[in-house]
Every structure is written in C-alpha cells, then in structure tokens.
Amino acid sequence: MTSSAKIKSIRRNLLFLISGGVSLIQIIGISFIATSFIENAQKNIELETRYSAETIASQSISYLDANDHDGLHDLLLDVKNIPYISYIHIYRLQNSSEDIEFFTSYNRDENFPAIPDKIADIDNLATTNYTENFLELIIPIKQQKVYGYLYIQSSTEQVKDIIQNTIIIAAIVFTLSLCFTLLIILRVHRMITVPIKSLIGTVQDISQHKNYTLRCQDMPYQELDILSRNLNIMLSRTSKHITKQDNAEQQILKLNHELEDKVSQRTEALKESNQELLSTLEKLHQFQGQLVESEKMASLGDMVAGVAHEVNTPIGLGVTASTLLSDRLNVIKEAFENKTLKSSQLKKFLNEGQENVAIVYRNLNRAADLISSFKRVAVDQSSEQDRTFNVKELINEVFLTLAPQIKQKPFELELNCPGDLVVISKPGPVNQILINLIVNSILHGFEGKEDGVISITVMNLSGQLHINYRDNGVGVSQSIKGKIFDPFITTKRGAGGSGLGLHLVYNLVTQALGGSIQFESEINKGVSFDIHFPVVKSAS
C-alpha cells in the first residue's frame, strides 16, 4: 500500500509543472530578447562614437596643419549637440620628430575637471574599451599621412537607461503572463478535478457501504467517461462474483463439515500409525547403537586376534630356547654324575645357556610390552575418562597393537608429533579414532595398491589438539564423498563392510571429544582428515 506521505495533489503538480515550465520559457525568451536588445544598444553607441570620432578627425586635419588651436577648439564646441560625448582630446604628431603632444580638448561639463592625457594608452585604446560608466577610443588623424590622434570618451548612461527600461518591461511582461498562466491552470484544474471528485465520491460510498449496486454517472470528458463506464462494468462483475462467492461459501461450509468428520476419523488412524512408527524408530535407534558398539567390539576383537598372534611368536621362541636349555642342562648333569664332564663341554654349555637365557629374556620382554600396550589400549577404549597422557606414546601404542595387520602389508606409517606433548583429555576416543582410520585405509584406501603411506601430524595450537591424518590411497568417489560420515555408507557392501567406521569416528570427534572433523579427497590421491578438539596441556 502506498504511504500517504508519497501521495501528491494534482492541483499542486499542475501549478508547479505548468507555471514552472511557462516561467522557465518566459525567462529564457525574455532574457534572450533583452540581451539582444542591450547588445544592439551597445553596438549602436559604439558605432556612433566611432563615426563621430572619424568625422571630427577628418575635420581636424586642416587645423592641425595650420597649428590653429582656437579654431579647432571652437570646432569641438559644436560636439555639445551630441549628448553622449563627454571628452575629446586632440594630440598632434610633431613634424621634426615622432613625439606626440597634446593639442586641444573638449569637456562637456565645465564643472568636472579635465581628464589626464591618454598619450600612453594610444596602442591600448585602438579598439573600443568599455568601463563601468563610459567607453573610450583613440583613432589616428590621417590623410595620406598621420597628423595626430583623437581620443573620444562617450557616456554609457544611455545604455544603462535602455537596460533599466528593458528589465522593467520584462518584469511586467513576466508578471502578466504568469498571472494569465495561473488563471489557465485554475481553469484546467476545475475542469479535471470536478468530474474526478464525483467519481471519488461514488467509489468511497461503494467502499464504505459495500453497496455494489451503485453506478458512476456519465462524465463530460471522453477519458473520464471511459473510466466511469469501465468502473460500472467492474462493479457489475464484482456484484455477480460476490453472489457466486456467497453460494460457494455455503457449499464450502457444507464440505468443511464433511471434511471435519473425515479428518477426525483419519486423525485417529494416524495416531495409531504414528505410535507404531515411534516404536519402530526407537528400535532402529537401539539397533544402530548396538551396531556401533558391535563395530567397537569388532575393532577390539581384531586387535585381540592380532596381539594374540603377535604374542605367540616371542612366547614360542622363549619356550623353544628354554626347552633347548633344559636339554643341554640334562646332558651336563648326566656327564657330571658320571664324572665324564669336560671343561670344554662345560664352557660350551655356559655359552649356549647364556644365549638361550638372553633369547628367553628378550622374547618375554617383547611379549610383556605387547600385552602392556594392548591392556592400555583396551582400557582406554572402554573408558571415556580424562587422564594425562603423552600423545606420541599413545599413538605409538596404537601402531604397536596394529602391527600384525600392518606388517603383512607393504604399508608405511609416518608420525610427526613432538615427543614432549603431554595433554589432559580422553585417550579412549583418540585410540578408537586412529584405529578406525588406519583400518579404513588398509581395507579401502590401499585396495589393489602394492604400497602406501599413512602420515599422521599432531600439533597443539591455542588449546586445541590438531591431528592431520593423510594417506595416498585410491581416494573416495564423488558419489559418496558428501555422505562419508553417514551410517551404513560403505563400498564393501556384502563383503564384510558395515559402513559404521567413519560414522563412529565422526561421533567420537564431535560428541566424545567436543571437536570437529573435516574431510578432503581426490581420486587416486588419497584422503585427508583434519581433526580438532580442545585439550589441556599438562606441564609434566
């Protein structure tokens, strides 16, 4: 709806537009005529001054030649009949030299002092020079040769009078034409607004009383009459439409009652269906939680199997070495009892026994380290409590627990982490995140590749632990790149892949650690995960 502040009156617009336009045209026209008239007046007085100067100059030649000052002065007195000439100077050129000297002059008003000679301005006043109250001109007095110079000064009072009269006449003409224009505007305004007010009154009456049977009267002007007829046509159609609308509203009310009954019946049915859907959805959430926990346990089970296999090797070597040592001990004991023991035999036994004991010691330590690392990883995975830990040692423990899976493949692990980075956070989720990412790279990223590199870079910046995980595997296709963290998204469907690995990683980062994770990938260039979560840096 148009704001009332923007609505303008037709009368005001007509007044401003027409009077402004006419005034502008009048000002331009009067200014042009007045300027032309004034310029013509200036040219006329300039021409008259030059003509008078030339006439006096030609008459002065004989007096200059005869050196008759009085005669020339009497001649100049006749100039009083020319009202605009104020001063005349006659300068004579001496025959013996090129010097110019004052000869005689004319001054119209004897009460005014004579003006100084203009000998120094002969060159500057060769053309007419206008000042505020007069114009000046110097012309040579010559007839085959130059006898001297004539200086003439004419008053511009006549031009000023012409300008003043012209301004007065222009003001009178402008005022009369503006008044005439205003009368025309008022007449045009009355011709237009009276019929329009009639239309407005009819429309307002229809609007206030909603009586669409009223009709607009005929208008005296064609355009307004066309508007009146079209308004009448619109009113007729509106009246018919309202009648149809009333009938339709009655029909709609009837249909609404029928629909309300149907909606009530359907609502009851929907309530029952919604209850069943809510129950099914709750079961689905429980099932998804169970699947996530199963994924965690499956990851832990894979580690258990790998660690068990890894522990079997040093224990087996320790058993073999201890069995061999036991056999050698029995031989030495038998030789000692039979008193057939030789020093060389005893020396050999001691050397071999020392080697076997060293073998047993190294392998038992190896098994103990594996079991200790596995215990810490297993405890961390089953706990989400904050504790103080060394980040590099934690990641090395993860590498150690995954060693059985990694060493069977031609893959390399690279770790860039400060050795003294000790923080307070939840090590369990960090363990699970790294294990899932490494296993995901082994199963998916390096599929069909003969080698690969997994690089992990860790930094602590502004109370945030930044972990960049990167591999140079096959990457992720565009079809699943945007939903890589969604549950049940996998490229190993039907081949053992659950699609919960990266979903579990996302939940651990965002919920357990309160951080964020970003993912980038290019085909055949691998993947990159940027993980950020808050930690407290420990001084120890």
UniProtKB/TrEMBL annotation:
Keyword Plastid (UniProt): no
Keywords, ordered alphabetically: Coiled coil, Kinase, Membrane, Phosphoprotein, Transferase, Transmembrane, Transmembrane helix
CDD domains: HisKA
EC numbers, comma separated: 2.7.13.3
Organism: Thalassomonas haliotis
SUPFAM superfamilies attached to this UniProt entry: ATPase domain of HSP90 chaperone/DNA topoisomerase II/histidine kinase
Coiled coil, from the record: 245-276
Name of the featured protein: histidine kinase
